[in-house]
């Protein structure tokens, strides 16, 4: 299963990504987790040991290296290589631990107009290369899909879009769907998260009638730990939700 997880800010993308990765790891499938969110907290949510999370550096911190690979200078833009060599970067930056691997991409956000392209192009190429590995993979995205190119998408099984029962989050699903279709990413499964009652469930279902809804996860009222999503009582229930969901996703993405 190779998927990317998108959705409006705060809906639970990282929580669900971490859950899916931990579930895959528990199945002995040695998944690859890609943290493409600038907050870089996927490792914490997966409950990785401090000595790992605290020492991880996002690939994007290496602006000089990225720029050099792209054949330009940091923040300069201009002409640059569209498919720079990245295999050694992946080997250097990927962390193997607890039956899974984690690569933190980060995002290049500084710099003036036109300066972001070369470095981001390298990050995009990294993702393109990762998706060809023969491994289960979950990418925790930001709301936009700028890390995804057509080549990556073609090798991916699909996109999971998370929403809660608020109109802005539901509208964001539609916006993401449009962005996804632009890059031929048409296999989309929606997950309703933090759903407190049947009215909320209905709000999501009614708002997204022409999309496939893979399932709903209850609101555990802030009890899901951000330092290991399967921890504690809420985490035990959340693990069951994720197991159920993972089966649905595998079905959805097989055909
Ligand atoms: N089902 C749930 N029940 C209760 N709390 C939840 C649930 N899912 C996520 N949360 C909580 O909601 C908050 C936001 O979740 P999370 O960080 O996963 O969202 P996100 O979409 O990744 O946010 P961002 O856009 O900032 O990256 C966290 O405090 C998380 O513990
Ligand atoms: Mg997040």
Task: Characterize this entry briefly.
The protein is an alpha/beta fold and 255 residues long. The chain has 10 helices and 8 strands.
Your description of this structure?
- The chain has 255 residues and is of the alpha/beta class.
- It has a single domain, classed as Rossmann fold (3-Layer(aba) Sandwich), CATH 3.40.50.
- Helix content is 41%, strand content 17%.
- Strands 3-4-2-5-1-6-7-8 form an 8-stranded mixed sheet, sandwiched between helices.
- α1 (13-26) packs across α10 and α4 packs across α6 (117-130).
- The chain is globular.
- Magnesium ion binds at residues 13-14, 37, 39, 140.
The CATH superfamily is identified as P-loop containing nucleotide triphosphate hydrolases
Task: Assign the CATH architecture.
Answer: 3-Layer(aba) Sandwich
Ligand inventory = adenosine-5'-triphosphate, magnesium ion
For the record, the CATH class is Alpha Beta
Number of domains: 1
Assess the beta-strand content as a share of residues: 15-25%
Q: In angstroms, what is the radius of gyration?
A: 18 Å
Strand order of the biggest β-sheet: 3-4-2-5-1-6-7-8
The major β-sheet equals: 8 strands, mixed
Overall morphology: globular
State the end-to-end CA separation.
12 Å
Which structural class should the secondary elements be placed in? alpha/beta
The ordered string of helix (H) and strand (E) elements is: EHEHHHHEEHEHEHEHEH
Total strand count, please? 8
Q: Percent range for helical residues?
A: 40-55%
